[in-house]
Each structure stands twice: as C-alpha cells, then as structure tokens.
Specification:
By secondary structure, the chain is an alpha+beta fold. The chain has 16 helices and 18 strands. It has four domains: about 100 residues, Uridine Diphospho-n-acetylenolpyruvylglucosamine Reductase, domain 2 (2-Layer Sandwich), CATH 3.30.43.10; about 120 residues, Uridine Diphospho-n-acetylenolpyruvylglucosamine Reductase, domain 3; about 120 residues, Alpha-Beta Plaits; about 90 residues, 2-Layer Sandwich (Alpha-Beta Plaits), CATH 3.30.70. The longest helix has 19 residues. Keywords: FAD, Flavoprotein.
C-alpha cells in the first residue's frame, strides 16, 4: 500500500528544465548527446516511463531526459555538463528501491542518470579474494561469477536478479545473510565515484588495511546518491561453503526465539548465515496468496524461525550440529517443533515462506511498512509494545512482523482490519508511523535498518536524529555538493 509521499523540501530546485526547452536542448541535451550518443539517451516519455515508476508504493516521477552512459568517463562528462548548467541529477540503478530514493520528482526539474549500460566485470583477483565491477552489474551476476571461481559474494536479497551493485552500495543493502557477513558496507574494499563537479575519485584499492587518512568510501555507501555517483566497486570475496542446512522451527514468542538464538550462537558459531523471525499470520498470508507454499509443520504455532547455516566440510556433520542445536532448544523450552530440510527442494520450499510473506501482505489491503532495527535483546519488547499500542488505538489492526532477528532488523508491517475500508485505514498511516517509530527510538533503535531514507522517511529524520547529527550531515552535503544537484530532496531535508 502506498505510503504518504512527502512534499519536496524547500531547498530542492523547483525550476522546470522544460520551461525554456530551447535553452535546455542547447545547454544540456545536445552536449550530453555528443558524449553518450543516441544509444545513451531517452527523451520519449513512453520509453522513459518504466524508469519513472517504482515497483512498489506508487512512487512516480517525470523528467525530460534519461542518460545511460556506457563508462565512467562518459558519466563523469555528463555530470560535468550538469554541474556547469545547474542541472539536478537523480542517479538510478536497477530501480528496485523501497523508499523512492531513485525516483525523480514529478515536475521535470531533474534528469535521471542510469547505470544500466555500465555492466562490466572489470577484474577478479583470486589471490586477493576481490572482484572489481561496474556499478550497473546485477547482484546475481556477481554472485554467479564468484561462484564459478569457487568464491562467495554473500550479499543476498529478494531483488538480486534485477538490483544493481551500485544501488546496493548506495543504500547499504542488508539482506538475509547480514547476520554473518554484515551489510553491503562490510563487503567493500574500494570504490570509484563521480563527484558532483564531474571529477572522478579512484578509490578502487583492494586493500584490507589502509590507515592513510579518512576512509572516504564509507561516505558514499548508504548516501543514496546525494554525495556522488558510485561507478565501480572492488568487492570482497569469501570461500564458497561446501555444505549448508536449512531448518524451519516453531517457538512460543520472540523472547523464546532470542533465547534460542543465544544458544545457537554458542553451539553453531559463525556457521549461522540466516536467522529469520516470522509470526503465524505471515505464514498464513504467504500460503493464502501462493499455492506453491506449504506449511512444513503439522501443527500451528505462534512464531517461527527460518535458520540457515553454511560452512566448509561435509554435509552430514553440519546437519548433525544443527540437529543438536534444535534438540537443545526443545529440551530447554525455547523451541516447540521444527524440521530440517532433507533436500535442496525442501530448503527452497522453506525459503518460499519467507519470500512469500511480503508479497502476500501487499494483497491484504492497507498496510504500514516499517524497516526498523533495535538491539536484538529489545526485539521482544519492541514487538510487544508496538502491537499493544496499535491495538489500543486502532481496534482490529492485524499484526504482521517478520525479518532478520539475528541483527535486530524487523519488518514490522501491520495490516488493516479484515474487511475494513482501505482508504480509511490508509489515512491512519502518519499516526501509525509516529507510534511505531517513537517506540523504536525509545529502545535505542533506528527507523530504517536497510531500506534507507529516500523520500519516504525524509520528513521524519529530524525527529529521530540529534541537532548535532543533522548538522554534521548537512555540512557533508554542502561540502561535496554545494549546488544541491545530487539527488535533491532525498535522504536529507532542507539540504539546499
């Protein structure tokens, strides 16, 4: 269900680029055409439309021009034209984001620069365990390229077949394996970035240790394209696990789930890659809207864990370790039931439950999506307090919580009352957000764990960040982008 789209902050440029179409053509369009050629331009509204619309939540924009450079050099030259003419830019990768960060506004005040043609695997260094790629390479392509060389690139998320690594890094993507391997930020050795004035910073150093000054790459990871455009990355590779095991476990509550997580860490150590929590309603709704999904357990329970472990060595010993952790959980009352997949097909069936929950939720009417994080120890308290507060204020609202228990990132997405008026329930969104996010803040959490701010949360940021933190971010923005040309109206309110 679409969230309320906030008005652009006052600092964002408002002048339409098409007000003086002859000037736009002379100063921007033709110089850019000379740089990228006809293959690198889209000016037809119908041809541009797929890049104007987000795949979820009805984010939509309008621009007079989409530019698709084929190289860093072309992209840098285009940005230089924009800097010289004061033309705002919206960088866009695979267009799979969830907060409107890669969608232009709807008033022809910006152009889009898409990295879709920048899709080269530049180099693989197996001795150094790194791979260097263009920003437009699809995440799944990187995973498959690494696997073919006996290596693992562990970033994994639902959109991996279409999202691009540049966007993954610009939003510091998390995914289901962040518990073991960290977010995208932890997987980067070096970056190449086009700065807002068109200069190129070449930081593609595949080093594990570099203590010569500020770690500049970290400024651009998670910055949502507001400080520059990532054009290439050197990424860290790991040994490819030779054995893996998947389980679907029933537990009484988030508190018992956290208790078993603590035990599992002690017994399984770094082999745990995934620890996903979901309540019963998530399973029911996933099954309701996807006939290929089956309940792996005979009896119904209130809460579940999807667990995946992976390591080097043989399959049987790894499965035995998972079984021992499962049995210990049963004996100590942390788990109630469960099954360990006996085949790759059964493991895929378990994963489909987790993947089907958000898609099924979309078909249930108005819902309120929250990508929040709290300390793992506070997950049970957060869910209990948020459920109670919303039930008291909005009788009939249906709880719907799932996500990455291992790192405290819960997708807390309550759904309207069954059979209720969709438009009425949608109007409650601002108050629902306020209730949920205030609880998150009180528990020392963040209102966005892996999706980013974009346009969706831009007006909420000042409430949950200190004045000092806001000023630090504004100073960074002014330092790198004094004209406020890089993705204006995203991430940081009143950046101009």
């Amino acid at each position: 269900m679409p969230d309320t789209i906030p008005a652009p902050p006052a600092g964002r440029p408002r002048r339409s680029l098409t007000t003086d179409s002859a000037r736009f053509a002379r100063e921007v369009l033709e110089p850019v055409r000379a740089i990228v050629g006809e293959r690198g331009l889209l000016t037809d509204r119908d041809a541009m439309q797929p890049l104007m619309v987000a795949w979820r939540d009805n984010w939509e924009g309008r621009v007079p021009l989409v530019v698709m450079p084929a190289s860093t050099e072309e992209l840098a030259a285009v940005v230089a034209v924009c800097a010289r003419t004061g033309t705002p830019i919206v960088p866009q990768g695979g267009n799979t984001g969830l907060t409107g960060a890669s969608q232009p506004h709807g008033d022809d005040t910006e152009i889009v620069i898409s990295t879709r043609r920048m899709n080269r695997i530049r180099a693989i260094d197996l001795d150094n365990d790194t791979i260097t790629v263009d920003a437009g390479v699809v995440l799944q392509t990187i995973q498959e390229t690494a696997r073919a060389q006996g290596r693992l690139f562990p970033l994994s998320l639902g959109a991996e077949g279409s999202c691009q690594i540049g966007g993954n890094l610009s939003t510091n993507a998390g995914g289901v394996q962040a518990l073991r391997y960290g977010t995208a930020r932890a997987l980067v050795a070096g970056l190449e970035v086009v700065l807002p004035d068109g200069r190129v910073w070449d930081g593609l150093r595949g080093l594990r240790k570099d203590n010569a000054g500020y770690d500049l790459k970290q400024l651009f990871i998670g910055a949502e394209g507001t400080l520059g455009i990532i054009t290439a990355a050197t990424l860290k590779l790991l040994p490819l696990p030779t054995a893996s095991a998947t389980a679907f476990l029933a537990t009484a509550s988030p508190a018992t789930a956290v208790a078993w997580l603590r035990r599992a860490k002690a017994l399984l150590g770094e082999s745990i890659t995934t620890m996903e929590l979901m309540e019963r309603r998530c399973v029911d709704i996933a099954m309701r809207h996807n006939g290929a999904i089956r309940d792996p357990l005979a009896d119904r329970h209130d809460w579940y864990l999807m667990v995946e472990i992976a390591d080097q060595g043989e399959q049987a010993p790894l499965e035995a370790r998972l079984l021992a952790a499962f049995e210990a959980g049963l004996e100590n009352g942390e788990l109630l039931d469960g099954t360990i997949a006996a085949s790759a097909e059964q493991a895929a069936g378990i994963r489909r439950i987790r993947e089907g929950a958000p898609e099924g939720q979309r078909l249930e009417g108005a819902s309120y999506k929250h990508d929040v994080s709290v300390p793992v120890s506070q997950v049970p308290r957060f869910i209990a307090e948020a459920d109670a507060a919303l039930a008291a204020r909005f009788p009939g609202i249906r709880s719907f919580a799932f996500g990455h228990l291992g790192d405290g990132n819960i997708h807390y997405n309550p759904i309207q009352a069954e059979g209720g008026d969709k438009d009425l329930w949608q109007s409650f969104l601002p108050e629902v957000n306020l209730i949920v996010h205030d609880i998150v803040a009180r528990l020392g959490g963040s209102i966005t764990a892996e999706h980013g701010i974009g346009r969706l949360r831009i007006n909420e940021v000042p409430r949950y960040k200190s004045a000092v933190e806001m000023e630090m971010m504004r100073r960074l923005k002014r330092c790198f982008d004094p004209q406020n040309l890089m993705n204006p109206g995203k991430l940081l309110p009143d950046a101009g």
